[in-house]
Amino acid sequence: MPEHRRDYIEHYVAPIEETPLQATDKVSEDVQPLSLWAEAWRNLRRQPLFVIASVLILLIVVVALFPALFTQTEPNANCQLANSDGGPAPGHPLGFTIQGCDVYARLIYGTRASLTVGIFATLGTLLIGGTLGAIAGFHGGWLDSVIARIGDVFFALPLILGAIIIMQLPFFRENRNVWTVVITLVVFGWPQVARITRGAVISVRNADFVTAARSLGVSRPAALVRHVIPNALAPVIVVATVNLGIFIVAEATLSFLGIGLPPDVMSWGNDISAAQVSLRSNPSTLLWPAAALSVTVLSFIMLGDALRDALDPKARKR
Amino acid sequence: MTTIHEVNSTGPLLEIRDLAINFSSSTGDVPAVRNAHLTVMPGETVAIVGESGSGKSTTALAAIGLLPENGRVTGGRILFAGEDLTQAGPKRIMELRGNSIGMVPQDPMSNLNPVWKIGPQIKETLRANGLPSGPDDVAKVLSEAGLPDAERRARQFPHEFSGGMRQRALIAIGLSCRPKLLIADEPTSALDVTVQRQILDHLETMTAELGTAVLLITHDLGLAAERARKVVVMYKGQVVESGAAQEILTNPRHPYTKRLVEAAPSLSSRRIQSARAAGVDSAELLAPPVEEAAAAADNVIEVQDLTKVFKLRAGFGKSTDFTAVDGVSFAIKRGTTTAVVGESGSGKSTVARMVLNLEAPTSGRILFDGVEMAGLSRGELLKFRRRVQPIFQDPYGSLDPMYNIFRTIEEPLRVHRIGDSRSREAKVRKLLDQVALPASVMRRFPNELSGGQRQRIAIARALALDPEVVICDEAVSALDVLVQDQILNLLAELQHELGLSYLFITHDLAVVRQIADHVCVMEKGRLVEAGSTDTVFDSPRQDYTRDLLAAIPGARLELPPEVA
């Protein structure tokens, strides 16, 4: 043990072979290049939440695209009142509705309407909200204020209340289909995406790399498209994923209230609505479409959560 | 062995022996510190010096039980007054914190709770350690910290304090319970040099009065040698050398320490000459560069009476004027380096932004090659952009994280439609070679590179358009000493090779000494002194310049000539 005297300070030098000196700021050349997205993908792959959610979503998408793969029963053709509210039978695993239609077949064929509304409403909000939000955030000043106030007007109206009013407009009442529902949802959904995009764009707008690009001669719009938007995308994607689930629920709610999809379009919302009358006698007709709805929405929200973890700028390694 | 509580009065206060710390990560355990050892005697100041990632903070934080959650002490002992802290339970560590071991954190801006007034934050510390915590006691702590009018200050919020005042408050909190040991983790790295000196002077007086030992963590060898009796040098998680401060500085024995001492910029260092220039004619080294030779007014940039007034909002349509830059004039001679020096808020960065044409001057003229910039058309502006390029301070912020290195460097070529894809790739390779990076980084992304490497990428991008002027806004301030030295040498090399002119914006006078031919000193928007580097450094005419020069850590140290 070294002696500790106040006036004496030992001069210690570590053995050089134990502390080898490296070249200053050496580049390690043996690692694979990884972009932020590639890195996020590597993180995601290992998350059970993400794996479960994406397997379910993949399944739902396949069901929506090719319903005939999953059932041979025509959902509307063979409805026989004799089977009304019947229990499971051979070839009809989930039983029959009050109209005597096959619950399972309706479930499978209803997927498409729900998913279409969800996907197109999300794309619509992304397009409108994303564009307006990005312009507001990047331009700032009066344009920002104007867009923000317009957004606030739509934000202040509750979605369902607003949708009820819009769907009662003559044009919408007469042309009820998937697209009118999508338009309604987009009208009330875009301000949220616009807000998120605006915030993300503002946080990137003043980054040094944008200034650097500007002084290299990149024009303002080009800097917005090439540098700002790609870097502001992550939080928007997360919100959009969660919104997709929420829009599917909103469609079901509107259909349940009788102002969403017309009754001849097969959708989970319509089925839940139709099952009201047999709630006491045959609750399974309500249970199955509701379960399908819940699983779908849950999958999208789980995916959104997993994406948030993988894309969160605070969790990013430097 | 952990029950020895009585302290031998001559025994060490803190003794770290063979300390090993691991961080668990997704890819397994990563050793952060190995074989660390250091001794702090009662009342003694010891400095740990090292670059970022060397394990200096980790070692010190282990002593106070504040390792991050994934960090674990895997070996060795930390003896505080004879008690092994690695064996002590969390309750015992809590008792020691504040009372026996105090801490001054690095960033004064984020370490005070912004929604609480200063007073209650001090009160909290006092109360947590069972000390009297009345208003008088709080005021006493603050006045000890050198804050006049302590009672009023205690009722203020952190945002009403300047950076220096906040750091004083944090030091007051750290010392309020009269600890035997104070751990100061880079206490002044976020502050201006003159403030840094005041704070460190104050810390020194206070700890000397109270007999507190200080463990000072810093990246600045000069500062460590000036403030501490003993210096411990850490490199890649290991202690490579330790000993008396003066001894380490004058007689470094480990190759890393030698490298560090050589690289440390100081006032006695000379203008970096490019290696090739030095090789060609060593006599040229002694002559002041270019200056007199090209005395003819070949000014690439001329700034005349430049003024920038910002309108600050003062509510309801009213606004007050804030003059950020006030009548500044200077010129940059072709092929030379002009440095603009000043503390934060002196307006130096605003000057840079105006010269880059990112900000319009309120009045005054900027002439580029004799042509005034204000009246340029869009096309001419695009041409101007090609000839003047910036390098920014933050190497983490100046590269687009979504672009790989190739796209980053290629972008200026693409924007200005230079060459086809093949010739562009050849150019990128050449540029990477010029900044001494292997071509294999082309497919990498900025997040995989270190700060110094990113800064070299930024330099390569700036050089892509063969500019005549490069504007470096604090381009090396965020880098470790060795990397900083490397970048400065690279810049000098490139200047010699390509005949570049630099406008160097910095707060660091030691860096100015190494790179600049001319210096402009700015204070509160005004140019207070300008001249050749040697004149300004050897015989400063203004008090402000003298203060700045005196405040540089290590300025008062005597270094042997071969080191300087």
From TrEMBL, chain A:
PROSITE patterns: ABC_TM1. Keywords: Cell membrane, Membrane, Transmembrane, Transmembrane helix, Transport. SUPFAM superfamilies: MetI-like. Its main location: membrane. The lineage of its organism: Bacteria, Bacillati, Actinomycetota, Actinomycetes, Micrococcales. It comes from the Bacteria. The chain crosses the membrane at residues 49-70, 115-138, 150-172, 178-196, 236-261, 286-307. Residues 111-304 form the ABC transmembrane type-1 domain. It is found in: Cell membrane. It is a multi-pass membrane protein. Belongs to the binding-protein-dependent transport system permease family. This is ABC transporter permease.
UniProtKB/TrEMBL annotation, chain B:
One of its GO terms (molecular function) is ATP binding. InterPro entries: AAA+_ATPase, ABC_Ni/Peptide_Import, ABC_transporter-like_ATP-bd, ABC_transporter-like_CS, Oligopep_ABC_C, P-loop_NTPase. Keywords: ATP-binding, Cell membrane, Membrane, Nucleotide-binding, Transport. Belongs to the ABC transporter superfamily. It is found in: Cell membrane. Residues 16-261, 301-549 form the ABC transporter domain. This is ABC transporter ATP-binding protein. It comes from Arthrobacter mangrovi. Pfam families: ABC_tran, oligo_HPY. Signal peptide: none annotated. The lineage of its organism: Bacteria, Bacillati, Actinomycetota, Actinomycetes, Micrococcales. It is a peripheral membrane protein.
